[in-house]
Design brief:
By secondary structure, the protein is mostly helical. 64% of the residues lie in helices and 0% in strands. The protein has helices at 13-34, 37-42, 47-52. The longest helix is centred in the middle third of the chain and has 22 residues, at 13-34. The N and C termini lie far apart (38 Å). The mean pLDDT is 88.
């Protein structure tokens, strides 16, 4: 394997938005998983929805 070209990372606006969205989805998933079963039902979260978050 040989490195032909090195491109420096750039945090442009689309990448910043993508990273922010990914972090939000991770946070939301952890918050939903932290809810007890009663609260999940109260919010209308089904087990199928929880795994797709």
């Amino acid at each position: 394997m040989r490195l032909e070209e090195r491109l420096p990372a750039q945090l442009d606006e689309p990448m910043q938005k993508r990273l922010l969205q990914e972090r939000f989805e991770e946070w939301l998933r952890s918050q939903v998983q932290a809810l007890n079963e009663f609260d999940q039902r109260w919010f209308g979260i089904t087990p199928e929805q929880q795994t797709s978050l």
